[in-house]
From TrEMBL:
Keywords: Lyase, Pyridoxal phosphate. Gene3D superfamilies: 3.40.50.1100. GO terms for biological process: isoleucine biosynthetic process; L-serine catabolic process; L-threonine catabolic process. It holds the Pfam family PALP. Residues 23-140 form the Tryptophan synthase beta chain-like PALP domain. The keyword Protein biosynthesis does not apply. GO terms for molecular function: L-serine ammonia-lyase activity; threonine deaminase activity. This is Threonine dehydratase. SUPFAM superfamilies: Tryptophan synthase beta subunit-like PLP-dependent enzymes. Its cofactor is pyridoxal 5'-phosphate. InterPro entries: Ser/Thr_Dehydratase, TrpB-like_PALP, TrpB-like_PALP_sf.
């Protein structure tokens, strides 16, 4: 697949994907805005800028196994501070709804942590601008369809 990165405005990442954030930072020439998504019960990256750097945060919820580090990493924080335009917090029910929608509409089985970014769009917590393209990485498989 050939994607012209200049046509993509928003790129969504879950926070445990520090490697993905570093890769995006290397390839990004300020042409792509990065929007972070975290569960409300695990606001690690939301708390760090408020404190001026990595701090311990509460962790929990259905996506805790993949989206709940106790603190954002020392190497990831400066990259996130530079490249991430906004962090959106999503609820447990919004994540579950995104999982169900992905399954019912596309037959994509996504674990909670991988459905979190989609839940921000599906719930309306993030609304795309006119002409804006959104890319969402949905990966992983720590779940099965019968969970829905």
């Amino acid at each position: 697949m050939n994607i012209d990165r200049h046509n993509w405005i928003r790129f969504w990442l879950r926070w445990e994907a520090g490697v993905s954030l570093r890769a995006l930072a290397i390839g990004n020439r300020n042409t792509t805005a990065v929007i972070g998504v975290e569960p409300e019960l695990s606001p690690t990256m939301t708390r760090a800028p408020e404190a001026g750097g990595p701090v311990d945060a509460d962790v929990g919820g259905i996506a805790a196994d993949s989206l709940a580090p106790k603190r954002v990493g020392e190497h990831v924080f400066p990259l996130a501070n530079h490249y991430v335009k906004q962090v959106v917090l999503v609820s447990e029910e919004e994540i579950r709804s995104a999982q169900r929608t992905l399954w019912n509409s596309l037959r994509v089985v996504a674990e909670p942590g991988r459905a979190a970014a989609f839940s921000a769009v599906l719930s309306g917590k993030y609304i795309a601008s006119s002409g804006e393209h959104i890319g969402i990485v949905i990966s992983g498989g720590k779940t099965v369809a019968v969970d829905f």
